[in-house]
Design brief:
The complex is a heterodimer of chains A (about 425) and B (about 290). In chain A, about 45% of the residues lie in helices and about 15% in strands. Chain A is of the alpha/beta class. Chain A has 2 domains: about 200 residues, Periplasmic binding protein-like II (D-Maltodextrin-Binding Protein, domain 2); about 200 residues, Periplasmic binding protein-like II (D-Maltodextrin-Binding Protein, domain 2, 3-Layer(aba) Sandwich), CATH 3.40.190. In chain A, helix 5 packs across helix 14, helix 7 crosses helix 8 and helix 15 packs across helix 16. Chain B has a two-stranded antiparallel ribbon with strand order 1-2. In chain B, about 70% of the residues lie in helices and about 0% in strands. Chain B has one domain: MetI-like (MetI-like fold, Orthogonal Bundle), CATH 1.10.3720. The chains are: A alpha/beta (about 425), B mainly alpha (about 290).
Amino acid sequence: MFIKKSTMLGAAAAVLFSGMSTSAFAQVEIQWWHAMGGTNGERVNKIASDFNATQSDYKVVPVYKGNYTETMTAAVAAFRAKKQPHIVQVFEVGTATMMAAKGAVYPIEDVMKDAGEPFDKSIYVPGVISYYQTPDGKLLSMPFNSSTPVLWYNKDAFKKAGIEKVPTTWDEMDAAADKLVASGMKCGYSFGWQSWVMIENYSAWNNQAIGTKENGFAGTDTELTFNTPALKNRLQKIADGQKSGRFVYGGRRGDSLPSFTNGDCGMWMNSSAYYGSIKTQAKFDYGQAMLPYDTEIASKPQNSIIGGATLWVLKGKPQSDYKGVAKFMTYLSSAPVQAWWHQETGYVGITMAATKLSEEQGFYKANPGTDTAAKQLSLNPPTPNSKGLRFGNFVQIRDVINEEMEAIWAGKKTASEGLDAAVERGNKLLRKFEKVN
Amino acid sequence: MLKRVHFNTSWLPFALVAPQIFITVVFFLWPAGQAIFQSFLLEDAFGLSTEFVWFDNFKELWADDAYTDSFSRTAFFSLMVAFLSLSIALVLAGMADRIVKFATTYRTLLIWPYAVAPVLAGALFVFMFDPTLGLVAYALDIFGYDWNHKLNGGEAMALVIMAATWKQISYNFLFFLAAMQSIPKSLLEAAAIDGAGPARRFWTIIFPLITPTTFFLLVVNIVYAFFDTFGIISAVTDGGPAGATNILVYKVYSDGFIGLDLGGSAAQSVVLMAIVIVITIIQFRYIEKKVDY
């Protein structure tokens, strides 16, 4: 409907102003719903308008639809009402839901092939695209903004506390946190997105499975298995560390960011994409390093997994529109666009060329540590435990995990009870998903 | 003997109530019917595969501890919000009724919070009580109290009750004040001459005479606490920590709109609908008998 209307308008305009301008003639509008608010929203607009300026057949129209869950819900509702956009940005935990909706999504590899657009998968970072492929290797959605959790630390506080080496293991982490507290800080470390950082990435980084069937990649009859002795032990230690101030819980998502930037906590584990916020808010010298690994279960770190979102193409539009979508995807993956996006936001460049270009431009030299995320993602070739995860209803499962972890931090449950309950409740949601799809 | 009056045409009364019936059907009965229908379905998010499962969604709810826990939590939350907002508004209205100077200013200021949307009310409290940035949390810290509603379920509950109550006081205040001002002054003056002090006049004259208003507000407040508070919960706690503020209406929202579990969410809203119907019937049948009009 939308397209037809604008095409007619374009035609009408062309008739009216014939001879003056023909650029508006038959320009196809491509709706792009995204979840990037604030500064990142402006960057999304810039990408779209830059693309529009490169050609005159298509016009990409970005629309901000709220946060990730709101955007996904909006797209789902729109699809049910047959008013869906061409492209929608969906966060990584929505992947299984989108994948299962075979009648609704148009796999990006098919979009490119059907439009005759050249598409070479090998230019993308393996750790990024492995998350969004079918078991037989078909890419379903286009990675857009990917990040991974890193260890942010306050260099000034480290100096004051006499910590010389940035922690690489959990034992060193605890020792450093204790020194920070002894030097007068309110808290040693905190973290956000706790399911992603402390369960999903903790497991991948130590090469542990969090569920059966290759973390759900090999089938929907998967079960969660992260209630392992090692993780129970780790979370219990963290919970116990609250007494001395070694760890302070600061809420879900990025809610605990201020506790790092205002100098309460000396270390903070969360997405590399907080780079922009930390750069503007922190009034001290800060750095980012790789996550600590657990010497009790691993002798060296494996690789971390990504978070963030990809762009999904939805079916049900005129076939000719998808040619524009394909062209836009090619533009989006080009090295200059990706390098710019990466340097501005702290998200990982999705192609190897973007990282290389950033290096050539001297970005990493000028901003030490900004390549941590990329290095961490590609530290080792991904194993079945570390290529990502694919669980249905995972948005709800993460909520369950959040609830149970909060019960552990509040001392209402032991780590063992909390993790057992999280696995049991999560498995129920997995069975429900299996039944529907 | 009264003369019976008839309209000649029988369609006129129907035509006159038709707009009201139309609105009721479109905005109340149809959605409610849809919710009931949906509660029997198991459906994927996009609506591509739909299965009729009878009462499976309901059975699953009763088997879920998180859901059954939510009942007592919701009861506590609603009663606290209704009780606190009614009693505080009553005290404020009692004071405002007696005041002479600056009466309008005082009233206007008290009515202001009603113009604030629930989400904004929630956001205000989030800013005041944020454990790291909030003014109130900072003040409490000076007194040696470590406020962290992101970890402590009791504090989180207290916070959403405060926000929900604060928002509702103005509404109750307006109605109480109007009710009090409609009480004939002569009654109060007579009591005063007989030697009754302000407190006694309030409890023996004002309070009994405003019971119809109190009753009306009780119903409205309970419905408010059940349905209209999810904006506050969403802004302040997201139902956390560890589900401590996950009241029924918020769970409907989070399972349906965030979790995209439409059948389960619809089943919950049907349960919620039944609860509110029952509560309202109880209120009208039993409590209303004690009200003097």
